[in-house]
Amino acid sequence: MTIVWLLGAVTSLGVGMLGERILGIRARRQSEKLAALRERLDVYANYAKLAAVRRVEAEEMLAGLRREVAEVEGEILSLQSAVTADSALAPMEFHCVDRIARSGGPLWYVAVEALDATAPWTGVRTYAVAAESAEDARKRIAERHPSPTSFAISPAAPLVLPEG
């Protein structure tokens, strides 16, 4: 009977050692997987930190761009109000060219500045021109003052004469 017990004990010991070795291999593999997962987690944590820094930078840039947009919109509004105010200050004395405006026909305001000392006048002259389009009005004034070095011709703007 002792031999049976001895054989059982040795067999149990062999099975236990084999089980320990198998479980040890599995534990080592699981530890390696856990270490790899921890490394991945560290990489993802670094990505998260980098993303947070980039987000803060993007928010700062966006705030700066919003400030710039607000400034530019303010400039646009001030320029629009200046244009409106300047149009109210349009000169009331005009030089007229060869055509007479038809009733209901468009009138255009064109300013010509004398740039050269050889020009027949100094300063700016304003013309009221009857024409179908702004380009036509400017072209007619350019025909009248052909020298680009002596005269600067502004773009034509619609001219509305006051009533009365």
Overview of this structure, please?
The chain is of the alpha+beta class and 164 residues long. The protein has two helices and five strands. It has helices at 2-88, 134-144; strands at 95-96, 107-114, 124-130, 151-153, 157-158. Strands 1, 2, 3, 4 and 5 form a five-stranded mixed β-sheet that branches. It is rod-shaped, with a radius of gyration of 45 Å. Keywords: Coiled coil. Residues 55-82 form a coiled coil.
The N- and C-terminal alpha carbons lie at a distance of: 139 Å
Helix content: 55-70%
One letter per element, helices H and strands E, the order comes to HEEEHEE
Number of strands: 5
The number of helical elements comes to: 2
Beta-strand fraction estimate? 5-15%
Largest sheet: 5 strands, mixed
Unreliably modeled segments = none
Shape, per Cα inertia axes: rod-shaped
Structural class: alpha+beta
Whole-number total of structural domains: 2
- Whole-angstrom Rg: 45 Å
* Average predicted local confidence, pLDDT: 83
Keywords: Coiled coil
